[in-house]
Specification:
The protein has about 160 residues and is α+β, with helices and mostly antiparallel strands. It contains 6 helices and 6 strands; from the N terminus they run αββααββαββαα.
Length: about 160
């Protein structure tokens, strides 16, 4: 039964402009199965990074590897890209992949900061801007919805942010 559901999800088409077209390859992003399938498929990548002793964090298809220098980062990017394109035969998007300081790069809407007490996690400014815009749209006075419904929508947005 589970394999049947996974197969149907992978074989589902793409809807664009009201027309459904068949997908040639890959899993649909936004699908609830996507993170699960990514974690299963990229397990071999996790094992390779662990074997090399790399410090890394991965969630679904997003991955950050931490090294000491920019040169080591470029070398790690080259070897990780080579591994992903040969072993599991995945395509790495060079536009979304970059080498840089953990304090400047984002991972799942967060970045790392450093102060006198040590490192800490901070929310990216773009994520905060999106939340503020969502709150503004939700609490507009001319929407014509009940206050209870508005509070439910607000609670959903803020609970997601807090989590």
């Amino acid at each position: 039964m589970a394999l049947h559901i996974i197969r149907r999800s992978l074989m589902s088409g793409i809807m664009e402009g009201g027309n459904t077209t068949q997908r040639a390859e890959g899993a649909p992003q936004g699908c609830p199965l996507y993170p699960l399938l990514s974690n299963i498929y990229l397990d071999v990548f996790d094992k390779e990074l662990e074997r090399r002793g790399s410090a890394f964090v991965r969630c679904a298809d997003d991955c950050s590897t931490y090294v000491k220098s920019r040169r080591a980062g470029e070398r790690a990017m080259k070897t990780a890209t080579g591994f992903l394109e040969t072993k599991p035969r995945l395509t790495v998007n060079p536009e979304k992949s970059e080498v840089g300081s953990p304090s400047k790069l984002k991972f799942l809407g967060f970045s790392l900061g450093k102060d006198a007490e040590g490192a800490y996690i901070r929310v990216r400014a773009a994520s905060t801007r999106r939340l503020k815009e969502k709150i503004r749209c939700t609490t507009k006075r001319n929407r014509g919805i009940a206050l209870t419904r508005m509070l439910q929508e607000l609670k959903r947005a803020l609970t997601g942010r807090i989590n």
